[in-house]
Amino acid sequence: MDTTTPGPEQLTQLDEVAATLRSLRDEMAPADPLELSLERVTAGAVSAVPGAEFASITLLDDTGPQTVAATSEEIKVVDFAQYAAHRGPSIEATTQRAAARVLAEASEDTWPEFAGAAKAAGVRAALAVPLVLAGGEEPMLGSLNLYSADPAAFDPFDKGLMQVFTVAASAAISNAHRWQRSRLQVEQLEFALVSRSDIEQAKGVLMALHGCSADEAFLRLAQESQSKNTKLREVALELLASLRRR
After folding, report:
1. Cα–Cα distance measured from residue 226 to residue 230, given in angstroms and rounded to the nearest whole number
2. How many Cβ atoms are within 10 Å of 191's Cβ, its own excluded?
């Protein structure tokens, strides 16, 4: 198929992808949980590509590849078969940073685990496109995976279209990922400040009760924490609560 001059059907696909990306832009807010952003991308990919029936997103972390979003629970089995075997289209797209379009029957020799799981799930064709998410010190690598029961699904034009889609979708997902990381850091800082305040109050109580120094009061709290095998803040809160009950 000549993809240099899009025909009427391909122009319609371009319009559908553009509409999907506009919808993602309008619906995805930075404050959205990362999981919700990923789910919107998988749903958008299915609606944008003719023949696509299922979609999932693979992300690679320290423990290996993980399916972080999927349009159905059943399709996760196809992903998991690839992760267990360390090979398959999603692994290829994630590790080699190259799109992989494959037929289940044609991959029995190269990716037998994927082929077996795909056929069992009624999947005959798959398209996995690299996904790169910014938001931390190192980018998160992964893939957007499309599955279809139609062996004729996902032609070269679809592959190019989804590569454009993933670049645009990655930016929206990355914004959500950055916001989530920032929110977590703020929550951790708030917790640390509250914990310090509780510990300082408990130290002040011990200093008043026992006429000891700040260092000696802290040592008392630390020893209590160690003997009870509980966190220092919990010891401080227990002390303050006991005074309120008097």
Report:
1. 7
2. 11
The predicted pLDDT at position 205 comes to: 82
User: How far apart, in Å, are the Cα atoms of 160 and each of 17, 57, 105, 173, 227?
Assistant: 12, 18, 23, 20, 63
- For the chain, which residues score pLDDT lower than 50? 1-4
pTM: 0.62
* The pLDDT of residue 9: 62
Task: Convert the chain into a string of H (helix), E (strand) and C (coil).
Answer: CCCCCCCHHHHHHHHHHHHHHHHHHHHCCCCCCHHHHHHHHHHHHHHHCCCCCEEEEEEEECCEEEEEEECCCCCHHHHHHHHHHCCCHHHHHHHHCCCEEEECHHHCCCCHHHHHHHHHCCCCEEEEEEEEECCCCCCEEEEEEEEECCCCCCCHHHHHHHHHHHHHHHHHHHHHHHHHHHHHHHHHHHHHHHHHHHHHHHHHHHHHHHCCCHHHHHHHHHHHHHHHCCCHHHHHHHHHHHHHCC
Token pair in block for residue 114: 């994927």
Cα distance between residue 171 and residue 162, in whole Å? 14
pLDDT tens for each residue of 66-124: 998 999 999 999 999 999 999 999 999 999 988 999 999 999 999 999 999 999 999 99
Q: What integer pLDDT is reported at residue 66 of this predicted model? A: 92
